[in-house]
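S.,

As promised, the pyridoxal-5'-phosphate run. Input:
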Amino acid sequence: MASERKVYWSVPDVGADEKQAVIETLDSGWLGMGPRTKKFEKELSEFTGAKHSVVVNNGTSALLTALMTFGLQPGDEVLIPTYTFVATASSAIALGAKPVLIDCDPETFNIGPVQIEAALKAHPKAKMLLFVDVAGLPCDIDAIRTLAAQHKLLLLEDAAEAFGATYNKNPLGNYDHVTIFSFHIAKQVTTVEGGAIQTNRDDLVEKMRLVRSHGEGKEKYVHVELGLNFRPTDIQSAIGSAQLKKAGHYLELRDRIAQQYMRELGHWLTFQKVPSYATRPTWMIFMVLAKDKAQRDAFNAYLNAHGVDTRIPWPPVHHQPYFQARFPPQDCPVADRTFDRALSLPIGNAMTQSDVDYVIDVARRFFEGKP
Ligand SMILES: Cc1ncc(COP(=O)(O)O)c(C=O)c1O
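Predicted complex:
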């Protein structure tokens, strides 16, 4: 049965402002990375308070740029959450690192000190900790930073889903570890494809900029670092500047949608727990947990049949075929159970109140057995 109504999983809000920004860039005579990227970097730093911002062409490139800047070597052990979008792990694996996958917390779906300490017991020589703010919910950053300092771990925060989030009221990115963001189309701020790295550390930024662009130093065609091409275009950066002006509105809108979902569906579903330190989650993805896999699958099918687009968020990395073909089996039962029960409902910068009401109405009909 085809539904007459359609609610997409995530619709970006791009219109007159972004059109104008693209046209102005096209007319400016400078399309590649240039003045508009510099301006976007400055605005990103103003937004989060981070001392340095380096814009790149997507979030995966941001991860690779950061990892290459840290000088990650083949064989280095990197602690990585298994419950994440695959790019977190793939980036380290692409550089030859040995991924040590960590199970997640059952309530936040993030990793925290408990999971990290257990992994460090088994892998005391780990070189780096790559942690992820799942769905835009900040991890316990202070606890993680303390642990990383104690164990002399390099620290990289994959906040691809968390631009605009705050931890104890401090914006992510405004830290002296390294944080990356994605500006892909479904994110809180989009450049269609894009990403950025932020840090307050002074010692890494010059190298990051070199890695971003073939390691080319001051002299043309003289390559002083190993680098690749992770450059954004000024067209993307101009869209980013236009989007950034509306970021506050998008974050508030997503929060309103999330609060309404939680208020109206809490009788039947469990949600990602928001600890008090997570003073502003971004709700890039709105995840729910059904009672079990059978209920999740039936709920998903019902929503889809009634025109509500959904996603089952990520098979954990240890279940990905490419990972299983290369690495020994890993046991992460919490991520397995989360994956079996999780579903993400529509949320996005252009979602209307009527879309939200419709999703809730369809969900209610499913649970009340009144199809
Ligand atoms: C946690 C995480 N890391 C990395 C990425 C990669 O970002 P991109 O799609 O911009 O390459 C994503 C994707 O959105 C992600 O969700």
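The first helix runs from residue 16 to 28. Residues 58-60, 84-85, 87-88, 132, 158, 160-161, 182, 184, 195 surround pyridoxal-5'-phosphate (CB under 6 Å).

- D.
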